[in-house]
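Need residues for this backbone.
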């Protein structure tokens, strides 16, 4: 009987795919009627939950629930007030369960079993988007997507595949309908994460676009051939498939196979059957065949006599030659052309020349252009006064991309980048041809991904306990403090990094021997100490010397590894290994240490130098991740080409002796998938690197600030996605640049002749916390003035209470209630960095006050304890205040970094952003009942203001413990964070104006 129930539920869930949720119990009982069975609601939930986490019904329901929750918009996806719900929110979950007609008890059981996954994929679209990629349209033709999905399901869990399905659907849906009569060029940007699988996403986009009718696909890769070749291989292996590569040649015909890509060289994965197989030629299965215009071993070449390979109007390919290619009568019977090309002027010239020679009208070809690493080489550099050869090449590439878009009237341009602060937002000159005017999609990192957040403690406060279980820094980061000229100490630190690399490799092999799924084909270490390529060979020799001194086969080396295993790897792995086995004794590891050493020393040297500029750097056999196992120590520079994935990277050694203003791309090499060995990853990073004017730079903290910038901006985009009450987008792509500049005040448009037209005038979101640390360069006068300004607030703080954090840690804070108009007077006295504009926030504050949505503020002044936290009397005040450590950032105009995550939950409760009784985590309601101060402070028209104080002496880096008691107000910075009442803007409010009425996205500079 249980099987009959499960079968009925499974059939109903399958029938709902692509459609709105419907009363689930009614549909299931309708299915059960023929078997004369009836299920009640508790019984239905029992079937949905199953007895096993991998129960097929449970998995099917979870996936379908995730699909409904991930939809960008749908007619049914509105809350009780008829307002659209955002994807991945608690409101959307409630709406789905309401549409399924499940009661409160059932909803609570399901929410407890399937915790809400708040999607981090964000979609910003233009107001004039015309939806065409409906459920019915997407389901009409799915040949290549189904094939690619099958490949993904062998590598990812079902939920990861489903999220990629949803994300790629968002992108394809924002392209123009390939069958539309009037041509339209959609231009968009997909923002991923460093080393996070952007290739998987754009391959999925290609698959769906081809199924939908796109017939020419151009993939623009990096500037190095091996990177292009890697992308070609991935697309061939996972999407194009054997049958398209063979083109009708029998797989067992050795003579004819000699000239076939992969087969002719007996490629390892080809021989092992790892290339996708469709089962027959796609044309015989009713699908288009794919003609490859490039190969794994060569980029685009002038076709000349073979021009017909590109020409849709040669031969009998079109069913009705009198009609255009885009007409459905012709489109779905035609083949697909794919070219994977480098961003190289001569290559693009050849492609453009051949396009000009074919018989087909270029305006009739539905084309998809994928630009991988869109802010590398694609952007323009013509404004440089003395451009380098590389700059000139980039300018030429920009022109060629513009020309492609000019001649291919139906071309859709989708750029991919790993940073939301991409050049297309920063520079109007760069953006003129490729600005993402139609859509921006910010992707969610996959669950197996290890990125910036995973190496930093962004959610821990100064007084939180830090252990390897709770602190990412304690678990994964190892500081490097040796002076550049202290060779003995440098070598000791280097040896510890090499020991970590060896030991982690041995543990991987040991796990594999225990039956774990940990990957062992590649195991690498990356060393980056200098940007100067002439230093890399010297550094490699130095590392080789330290490696030889490691004496890993000798008792001293074994003892050193044993101690590292005992003191470092055992505690971290026990806390962080998850379901991976952890060796109980060092003796069981010994055989695998020898195996690891053998693998690392195989070949010419344990070390490979990768300067990053020359093709030969990447053509080394020891770096061929596609065709052989790679266990090497890689010495690279800042120009290690983006797009080059260092597979199996486990140990990173980063002590670049320059200023700390490194970009995310340069410093984020240690990001990526670490399935099965997250606990073994170690980052050795410089914590006292010589900087300008005799200063010391903490690279780890500098990078943490960059990670915070990115996290904050992605969160801001999520906050303003979707539509307003009128159905219009709350933010459109053309309005993103001024948001970038507001989030990163040190970053301003650099275009000499153009400027963005949109101007941000008002911005705020109710119930969320925003930090305002963008103060001027350190000034005794400013510090004293700011402290003097907040005296009315401190005078009002007369009560004390106990509050709890989002992780349910407790802390004490003083608080008081202050009228909104007085707070406005206080904020008016703050001075800001010249490159930061506080006016949009005050404009929003004034609006909320005028509308009666903001009446007063609860001012919180926390009393904290812990490392780098002191209590000091400040100025003339007799009561001590908490003083924290906050760093000023030289690359951000000396504005402050850092945050106060511990106090955020109380601020959200006070402002109405969090309602403990409705929170999916039952502990929230429990703690709110036990520690009710935040709940008692909440009123619908009350905001929350957090006051914190940071040591800010004249000596640069200031430590709170160095302050005297009492401390001069001139040496203390006054910082604040705001949470407006939820009532003021439940879904955020943002306002823009324009510089030029009637102008476009980008306008000329006047005057």
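Answer:
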């Amino acid at each position: 009987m249980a099987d009959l129930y499960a079968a009925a539920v499974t059939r109903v869930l399958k029938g709902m795919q692509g459609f709105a949720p419907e009363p689930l119990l009614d549909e299931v009982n309708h299915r059960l009627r023929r078997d004369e069975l009836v299920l009640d609601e508790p019984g239905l939930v029992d079937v949905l939950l199953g007895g096993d986490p991998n129960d097929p019904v449970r998995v099917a329901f979870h996936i379908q629930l995730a699909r409904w929750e991930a939809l960008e918009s749908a007619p049914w996806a509105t809350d009780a007030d008829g307002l659209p719900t955002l994807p991945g929110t608690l409101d959307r979950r409630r709406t789905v369960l309401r549409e399924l007609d499940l009661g409160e008890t059932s909803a609570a059981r399901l929410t407890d079993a399937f915790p809400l996954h708040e999607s981090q994929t964000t979609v910003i679209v233009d107001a004039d988007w015309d939806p065409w990629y409906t459920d019915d349209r997407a389901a009409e033709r799915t040949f290549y997507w189904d094939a690619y999905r099958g490949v993904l399901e062998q590598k990812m869990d079902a939920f990861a595949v489903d999220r990629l399905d949803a994300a790629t659907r968002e992108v394809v849906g924002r392209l123009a309908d390939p069958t539309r009569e009037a041509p339209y060029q959609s231009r968009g940007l997909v923002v991923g994460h460093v080393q996070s699988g952007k290739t998987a996403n754009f391959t999925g986009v290609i698959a769906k676009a081809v199924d939908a009718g796109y017939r020419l696909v151009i993939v623009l890769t990096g500037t190095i051939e091996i990177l292009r070749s890697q992308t070609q291989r991935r697309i061939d292996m996972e999407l194009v498939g054997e049958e398209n590569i063979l083109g009708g040649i029998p797989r067992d015909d050795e003579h004819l196979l000699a000239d076939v890509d992969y087969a002719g060289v007996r490629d390892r994965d080809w021989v092992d059957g790892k290339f996708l197989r469709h089962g027959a030629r796609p044309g015989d299965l009713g699908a288009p065949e794919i003609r490859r215009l490039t190969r794994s071993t060569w980029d685009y070449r002038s076709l000349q006599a073979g021009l017909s390979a590109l020409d849709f109007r040669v031969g009998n390919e079109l069913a009705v030659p009198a009609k255009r290619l885009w007409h459905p009568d012709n489109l779905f019977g035609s083949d697909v052309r794919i070219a994977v090309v480098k961003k190289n002027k001569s290559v693009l010239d050849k492609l453009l020349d051949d396009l000009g020679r074919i018989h087909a009208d270029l305006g009739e070809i539905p084309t998809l252009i994928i630009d991988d690493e869109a802010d590398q080489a694609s952007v323009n550099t013509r404004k440089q006064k003395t451009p380098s050869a590389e700059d000139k090449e980039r300018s030429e590439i920009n022109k060629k991309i513009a020309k492609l878009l000019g001649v291919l009237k139906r071309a859709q341009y989708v750029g991919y980048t790993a940073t939301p602060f991409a050049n297309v937002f920063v520079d109007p000159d760069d953006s003129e041809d490729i600005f993402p005017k139609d859509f921006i999609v910010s992707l969610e990192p996959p669950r197996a991904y290890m990125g910036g957040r995973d190496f930093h403690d962004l959610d821990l406060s100064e007084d939180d306990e830090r252990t390897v279980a709770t602190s990412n820094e304690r678990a994964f980061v190892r500081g490097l403090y040796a002076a550049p000229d202290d060779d003995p100490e440098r070598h000791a630190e280097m040896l510890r990094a090499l020991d970590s690399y060896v030991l982690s490799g041995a543990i991987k092999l040991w796990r594999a021997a225990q039956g774990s799924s940990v990957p062992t084909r590649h195991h690498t270490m990356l060393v980056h100490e200098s940007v100067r390529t002439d230093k890399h060979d010297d550094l490699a020799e130095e590392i080789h010397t330290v490696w030889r001194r490691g004496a890993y086969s000798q008792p001293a080396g074994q003892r050193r590894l044993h101690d590292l295993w005992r003191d470092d790897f055992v505690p971290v792995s026990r806390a962080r290994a998850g379901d991976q086995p952890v060796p109980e004794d060092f003796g069981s590891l010994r055989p695998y240490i020898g195996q690891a050493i053998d693998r690392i020393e195989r070949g010419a040297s344990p070390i490979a130098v990768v300067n990053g500029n020359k093709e030969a750097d990447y053509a080394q056999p020891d770096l061929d991740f596609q065709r052989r196992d790679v266990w090497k120590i890689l010495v690279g520079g800042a120009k290690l080409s983006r797009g080059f994935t260092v597979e199996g990277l486990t140990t990173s050694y980063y002590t670049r002796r320059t200023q700390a203003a490194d970009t995310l791309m340069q410093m984020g090499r240690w990001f990526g998938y670490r399935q099965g060995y997250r606990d073994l990853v170690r980052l050795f990073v410089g914590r006292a690197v010589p900087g300008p004017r005799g200063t010391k730079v903490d690279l780890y903290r500098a990078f943490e600030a960059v990670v915070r910038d990115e996290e904050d901006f992605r969160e801001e985009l999520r906050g303003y996605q979707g539509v307003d009450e009128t159905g219009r987008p709350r933010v459109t792509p053309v309005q993103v640049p001024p948001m970038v500049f507001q989030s990163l005040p040190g970053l301003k448009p650099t275009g000499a002749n153009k400027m963005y037209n949109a101007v941000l005038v008002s911005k705020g979101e109710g119930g969320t916390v925003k930090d305002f640390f963008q103060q001027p360069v350190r000034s005794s006068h400013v510090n004293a003035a700011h402290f003097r300004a907040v005296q009315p607030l401190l005078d009002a703080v007369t009560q004390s209470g106990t509050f709890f954090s989002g992780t349910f840690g407790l802390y004490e804070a003083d608080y008081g209630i202050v009228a909104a108009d007085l707070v406005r007077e206080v904020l008016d006295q703050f001075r800001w960095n010249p490159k930061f504009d506080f006016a949009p926030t005050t404009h929003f504050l004034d609006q909320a006050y005028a509308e009666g949505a903001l009446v007063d503020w609860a001012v919180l002044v926390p009393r904290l304890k812990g490392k780098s936290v002191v209590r000091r009397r400040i100025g003339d005040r007799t009561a001590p205040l908490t003083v924290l450590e906050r760093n000023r950032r030289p690359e951000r105009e000396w504005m402050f970094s850092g945050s106060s995550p511990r106090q955020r939950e109380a601020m959200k409760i006070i402002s109405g952003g969090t309602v403990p009784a409705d929170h999916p985590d039952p502990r929230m309601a429990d703690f709110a009942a036990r520690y009710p101060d935040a709940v008692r402070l909440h009123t619908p028209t009350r905001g929350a203001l957090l006051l914190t104080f940071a040591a800010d002496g004249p000596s640069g880096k200031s430590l709170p413990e160095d302050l005297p008691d009492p401390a001069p107000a001139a040496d203390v910075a006054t910082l604040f964070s705001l949470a407006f009442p939820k009532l003021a803007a439940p879904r955020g409010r943002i306002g823009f104006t324009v510089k030029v009425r009637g102008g476009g996205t980008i306008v000329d500079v006047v005057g």
